[in-house]
Amino acid sequence: MTQDLTTDTETRPAGAAPWRPNRTVAVVLAGGTGSRVGLGIPKQLLKIAGKPIIEHTIAVFEAAPEIDEIIVLMAPGYVDDARRIVDAAGFRKVTRVISGGDTRNATTRLALDAIGPDDCNVLFHDAVRPLLSPRIVRECVNALWTYEAVDVAIPSADTIIQVDADDCISDIPVRAHLRRGQTPQAFRSGTIREAYRLAADDPEFNATDDCGVVLRYLPHVPIKVIPGADENIKVTHPVDVHLADKLFQLAAQNPRPLDDRAYTEELRGRTIVIFGGSYGIGHHLAELARGFGARVFAFSRSGTGTHVERAEDVETALKTAFEATGRIDHVVVTAGVLRIGALADMDDPTIEQMLQVNFVAPVTIARRALPYLRQTGGQLLLYTSSSYTRGRARYALYSATKAALVNLTQALADEWSEFGVRVNCVNPERTATPMRTRAFGEEPEHTLLAASTVARASLDVLLSSLTGQVIDVRRSPGEPVAVPDEAAPARVGAQPPLAPLAANGNGAPDAW
Fold it and tell me: What sign results for the dihedral spanned by CA atoms 58, 59, 60, 63?
């Protein structure tokens, strides 16, 4: 048990005995049925960012050095589902997965029975709060060296009103004194046991949370409140599912970068296949990965005659890489086409090309790549753009296909999780690539992200454990000015919007 033993002696309650717990137990309360979300399964089993909500939640405690043991109390009838998730994720701190009770309080009693009589710290946390931060866990545990009970809360941004039986305002409490409660709630085991012992003798006992039990039956015990976090939301309603998914996207912006030695250790012996690797982001990624010892195979129409939208070309490319190295660890799709113009003005060959290269090709590549990625537990990496968040005039097909790739990423991450294959999508801001120059002409260099920066971020994603994520890559204030990509000088230069295709209707696709 790793804890900060520093305590504030001036705030220690008078007469409090020194606290010497033998361990710290996190209790994940997963008894909800998901009725308000409108699902046929408990909401904690719903997948967000490629994993069940409960898996995200348990992972926080698994990674926390302050936590020694995890006990999961699951909704009756779904204990086996929770056990399968725990086993598949390889959580080592989970000692028991048992059935919860009919109410929150009944579930807490079952948890206390499972913990046993030893003196320990206990943290009760809602399974459907998957965005709990390590900071909150740490501060809860540290506070128990001084206090017997700890709650987590955030200030109320809204004015709270009290109404009477006729729904008329009866009081408006001072907002500065109000907080919105979250979890975990943390206790010294003896304190929470005593509170529930006293509650058992009260025929009118009814509490919505465990701190409420302490407050009512042990009113002399101070309950310390530590700051929560806005992102520590509880997935309760349908809109919460979308909010949590977006928050996971924001939290995944910067996978942990490695130093050069670590990159080499991670990449040596791996095989990376890049579709669209002749220039732009794909070219920089190929060069970067090769420099760290990876075996990289870059395919494109201009470089290798590979038409990414053709299943036979994709299969040939993958087979070439596999036969040369005996494995494929990562498949990256940077190929794309950007044609600007009103949909009504586009000719059929242009429309067909955009749909084929921007969407059909990633689908084709994904299907053909899965058998190889299953063997290595690898990753498929796609690319979207900021235009995926809303359709824009003169970008109709481009925006639509990029939005489709985000949905494809999330769906495949879900489908392929059972195979141990990860799927992610990189969302770079405006990047200095030939594709962008071709569409927009020359732009101020200080406004563009360097393709090499996106390539480095992409490598970090490939080496991370992320799945089902859309990772934004943004230009930092101190980043060097982007320079035009020199990998394909013949293609750099302004091109009128909606440029005509080649006579055969197969203009060469651009690449990120």
Answer: positive
Contact 398, 338 (CB under 8 A): yes
Write the CATH number of the domain with boundaries 259-511. 3.40.50.720
Element (H, E) at 368: helix 361-376
pLDDT at 434 over 60: no
Count of Cβ atoms closer than 10 Å to residue 79 Cβ = 17
| pLDDT grade for 440, boundaries at 50, 70 and 90 | low
Residue 502, number of CB atoms within 10 A of its CB: 9
- Give the pair of three-digit tokens for residue 47: 């997948």
**8 A C-beta contact, residue 482 and residue 445:** yes
State the pairing for strand pair 162-163/149-155: unpaired
Q: Report the C-alpha gap between 475 and 499 in whole angstroms.
A: 29
Q: Which two tokens stand for residue 59?
A: 């992972």
Task: Please enumerate in sequence order all residues whose Cβ is within 8 A of that of 262, keeping only pairs 6 or more positions apart, or say none.
Answer: none
DSSP assignment of 143-194 equals HTTT-SEEEEEEE-SS---EE-TTS-EEE---GGG-EEEEEEEEEEHHHHHH
Q: How far apart are CA 230 and CA 155, in angstroms?
A: 9
Confirm if 309 and 435 have CB atoms less than 8 A apart. no
Residue extent(s) of CATH 3.40.50.720 domains in the chain = 259-511
Question: What are the tens digits of pLDDT across the range 333-361?
Answer: 999 888 888 999 999 999 999 999 999 99
Q: What's the angle, vertex CA 390, arms to CA 387 and CA 274, rounded to 5?
A: 35
Question: In the chain, what percentage of residues exceed pLDDT 90?
Answer: 63
Quick one: DSSP state of residue 421? Answer: -
Predicted local confidence at residue 387, as pLDDT = 73
| pLDDT tens by residue, 229-285 | 999 999 998 889 888 887 887 765 556 667 889 999 999 999 999 999 887 889 999
Residue 307, classed as helix, strand or coil, is: coil
Which overall architecture, per CATH, does domain 24-234 show? Alpha-Beta Complex (3.90)
Amino acid 104: pLDDT: 84
pTM (two decimals): 0.72
Residues of the chain with CATH 3.90.550.10: 24-234
